[in-house]
Amino acid sequence: MSSQIKYILDEEKIPKYWYNIEADLKKNTPPPIDPATGAPMDPAKLEAIFSPGAIALEVSRERYIEIPEPVREIMRQWRPSPLYRARRLEKALKTPARIYYKYEGVSPSGSHKTNSALAQAFENKRCGTKKITTETGAGQWGSALAQACEIFGLECKVYMVRCSYDQKPYRKAMMELFGATTIPSPSPYTDAGRAVLARDPECRGSLGIAISEAVEDALKNPDTKYCLGSVLNHVLLHQTVIGQEAILQMEMAGDYPDIVIGACGGGSNFAGISFPFIGEMLRGGRKVDILGIEPAACPSLTRGKYTYDFGDVAKMTPMMKMYTLGSSFIPPAVHAGGLRYHGMAPQISNVMSQGLMRARTVQQLDVFRDAVIFARAEGITPAPESSHAISGAMDEARKCAETGESKAILFNLSGHGHLDMSAYLEYFAGKLKNYEYPEEEIAMALAGLPVCEAK
Amino acid sequence: MSSQIKYILDEEKIPKYWYNIEADLKKNTPPPIDPATGAPMDPAKLEAIFSPGAIALEVSRERYIEIPEPVREIMRQWRPSPLYRARRLEKALKTPARIYYKYEGVSPSGSHKTNSALAQAFENKRCGTKKITTETGAGQWGSALAQACEIFGLECKVYMVRCSYDQKPYRKAMMELFGATTIPSPSPYTDAGRAVLARDPECRGSLGIAISEAVEDALKNPDTKYCLGSVLNHVLLHQTVIGQEAILQMEMAGDYPDIVIGACGGGSNFAGISFPFIGEMLRGGRKVDILGIEPAACPSLTRGKYTYDFGDVAKMTPMMKMYTLGSSFIPPAVHAGGLRYHGMAPQISNVMSQGLMRARTVQQLDVFRDAVIFARAEGITPAPESSHAISGAMDEARKCAETGESKAILFNLSGHGHLDMSAYLEYFAGKLKNYEYPEEEIAMALAGLPVCEAK
Predict the structure, then answer these.
(1) Read out DSSP for A430-455?
(2) Which of B162, B185, B165, B189 is nearest to B176 (CA)?
(3) Which CA distances in Å does A107 have to A80, A111, B7, B237?
């Protein structure tokens, strides 16, 4: 009877610094540009929507940036998060691979999102913000920000993608339990929402639309700022506590990963686990195979174009250079709501374009099949988003079973699925399906892309 | 900005022994009696439904009983569970009290129930059982047993109280995710279920009915045994890992509780936290105020009668001496489904009758009000059952705020409420209500009690 092995770090090992990959990249990530001028965005112009603290992190090239002590103190509730050796899963797969996973589902909101939510809420409190708006897909980011705002005494208003709002009433309940207001998006309360509803009153929404609404709300209201749960440099930076802890925990295990895997939506959990390992590589450390897993229903890294595009549907954000399916692309309503974003974080896109990582897609039915195998073996109920990483890791372990290779595979289990059980009910009832894009559909989405480069 | 303090024990501090309160009680707990003869039940007769391992524990008077290593190994996934000092809650209540809670929601099923499920599944595996039947109220026990059976390779069939089955589809999904079959109870598949349905086709069920169905199923099928998630001595024993860890963690905190609080349904989580402290007292240790909190909708300890009664509706179980509202009592469908049991564990009833503890009731609306305050302060979403302990602890802390006393209050937070969010949605929507029993209704329930003592 082999069981998991749990690697636990002392509280003092919670990272004191965030790790900034810009310090180690040979080619820095292209800056966002102002669509009005085509010139790099003046950071000061971002202050209308973001806290000065967030903006400073966004443009920093320092390798290590100190984590404010109040944020670190609150993280003590659940950090350092455990890292497990999945021996029961290895046995179920009859693989010689050594499978490790970092488990971020132990946070108050049930995912890695709390790592960034606390930091963003703290910076807003520090600069006098009273109210925060945001978007949420699956609801993990919204729950995380709701709780962080509650802790720091800020109001929180969450525009939740309608398809998730309908699929996941429990997430709405959790956001309200933590004191936030939730609004299904597209909503009739913003110009951006009204414009979408005028074209399609039945629109199920997307992260791109919800972002437009939340940004507009922040722009129109004084004392209100906007927070984004992924994509931006400072958000990815906040998540690097994950990979930094994992490096120490792999050391405890007397091992080092051959492959590091994360699910890719906007990119923050993937960056969180992988950037510290990429940093080690860039500074001369051991070569690691870095693998991003995205849903076939929203294949930005694998089928998108690396170009400047807007972060939202209404084209209110600066333009960012990223792998994108076009800011008007609305992915089908798959259950991994947190991965339904048309683009990929600029830093990850940069890393990808430099050949420092690879990516592949997985299909919804394979993801759920593997999530069930994982849950039964490891006793953890994974979120559909996180299950993309599980499925990717299991595929690598299956390859090892075929070749006889004993690779060390590390993946990030970014969150639990306790509030996503409706997805499992639909899966068990045979109601879920895969999604294959015809080439022409992707080509059409890409054809709508603005063509533009930084001047 | 004060935050929680987390007290974490090393893995080696997972208790190696269960603590058996019978060894320290001046008056031992009266044995179950055979309703056919009125004589104490012959343990051998219990083998039709329970594993020999469980029966041995049931009648043991040894103080410390070794935990089988395979069970201990699997518990390493989440044990020792954390103990928190609730400094943010203290601040929210402006209380001089020091509030501590042991958090059992970190287990695979999300509650303390896994502690006993693993031990019971292991003993059944050891004696050659192929299939296990059980009942579940809120679904926490069912999820726990489903996962434990999956680990040890046993089939699992769960009779789930219909009101919870309807209120909590996510719990059903989790049980199925862990490989179990779930059946709403009363069901048409057993004599016991059919009898209830004949009287009331719309019956919402109760733990007492579901127990009858699961026991009948086990009795009728070879290779099938029955497991109970609370009430019995061996189940309470399995839970004493909680209190044993808490004693060590209070030591780490340099403190000792003045009050120890747990929610009371069948009694297992309450016994888990309190029995090790009562044991210390009985062996000459410091006096602690032991407080059980039960729902006003099912007030067995506070309004029931201490007498021999059946454990189930169909009178299939042996008779146990316990505080009971009568085995035919069907509590209203409050959201704390796990507390809807007509009786109280015989050991707890014995402890109560000897004046070693006290009990009080709380009302549903107060419980949810306090759960929301707790969640916002501490960043944990509590189960409705566990929230009874929260509310009881908060009341004690509020008293301290009035008197200026600085008591140390320890309570058991037995599980998270991620799969109970529908209850919060109903609470926020103003749909929940309190339940006050007219004296005559309780009197009528008690009048139906069998009158009988062990010969």
Answers:
(1) T--------HHHHHHHHHTS------
(2) B165
(3) 10, 6, 16, 30
Instruction: Give the separation between CA B66 and CA B119, rounded to whole angstroms.
Output: 11
Give the domain extent around A94: 69-110+234-447
Mean pLDDT, rounded, for A38-47: 90
Structure tokens at B239: 């839970």
Q: What is the DSSP string of A94-132?
A: T-SSEEEEEE-TTSTTSBTHHHHHHHHHHHHHHTT--EE
Q: Which residue has the tokens 């099938």?
A: B224
B376 closest CB neighbour out of A1, A173, A179:
A179
Give CA–CA dist B367/B434, Å, rounded: 10
Complex prediction ipTM: 0.94
Contact in structure between B294 and B391 (CB atoms under 8 Å): no
pLDDT digits (tens, 9 = 90+) for A291-313: 999 999 999 999 999 999 999 88
Q: Which amino acid is at B20?
A: N
Please indicate whether, in this complex, the C-beta atoms of A419 and B416 are within 8 angstroms of each other. no
Give which of B1, B6, B74, B174 to mutate to test A binding, by max A Cβ within 10 Å: B1
Q: Tell me if A374 sits within 8 A of A395, measured CB to CB.
A: no
Domain at A354, CATH number: 3.40.50.1100
Q: In chain A, what residues touch B147 (CB-CB under 8 Å)?
A: 379
The whole-angstrom distance between B223's CA and the closest CA on chain A is: 22
A83-85 and A5-7 beta bridge pairing: antiparallel
Residues constituting chain B: 455
Residue B292 located in a structural domain: yes
DSSP B13: G
State both tokens at A382. Answer: 């994974």
Distance (Å, whole) CA B14 – CA B77: 11
> Does the global pTM surpass 0.90?
yes
According to DSSP, the β-strands at A319-324 and A289-295 are: unpaired
pLDDT at A453 over 70: no
> Between chains, do B76 and A173 touch, taking CB under 8 Å as contact?
no
Is residue A332, in this structure, part of any structural domain at all? yes
Q: For residue B258, give the DSSP letter.
A: S
Q: Write down the residue that tokens 């501090």 correspond to.
A: B13
Asked if A174 reaches chain B (Cβ–Cβ under 8 Å), the answer is yes
Render pLDDT for B89-119 as a digit per residue (tens, 0 to 9): 999 999 999 999 999 999 999 999 999 999 9
- Can you name the residues that pair with B66 across neighbouring β-strands? B17
Domain membership flag for residue A279 = yes
- Give the ranges where B168-267 is alpha helix by DSSP (H): 169-177, 191-199, 207-220, 233-238, 240-252
Judged against a pLDDT cut of 50, whether residue A454 lies above it is answered with no
Inter-chain residue contact A76 with B422, CB threshold 8 Å: no
| CA pair distance A114, A18, nearest whole angstrom | 15
Query: What is the least distance, in Å, from the CA of B110 to any CA of chain A?
Result: 9
Evaluate if residue B453 carries a pLDDT over 70: no
Q: How many Cβ atoms from other residues are within 10 Å of residue B65's Cβ?
A: 18
Quick one: average pLDDT of B282-290? 97
Write the Ramachandran bin of A31: left for phi over 0, alpha for psi from -120 to 50, otherwise beta.
beta
**Is residue A406 situated within a structural domain?**
yes
Q: Does B176 touch chain A (CB under 8 A)?
A: yes
Question: B1 touching A, CB under 8 A?
Answer: yes
DSSP letter assigned to residue A298: S
Number of domains in chain A: 1
Do the beta carbons of residue B323 and residue B300 sit within 8 Å?
Answer: yes
If pLDDT is split at 50, 70 and 90, which confidence band does A346 have?
A: very high
What is the spatial distance between Cα A6 and Cα B75, in angstroms, rounded to a whole number?
11
Share of residues in chain B with pLDDT > 90 (%): 84
CA-CA distances (angstroms) from residue B189 to A257, A384, B126, B183, B193? 52, 35, 29, 9, 7
* Chains A & B: contacts with CB separation below 8 Å: 116
| Maximum pairwise Cα distance, chain A | 64
pLDDT score recorded for residue B454: 46
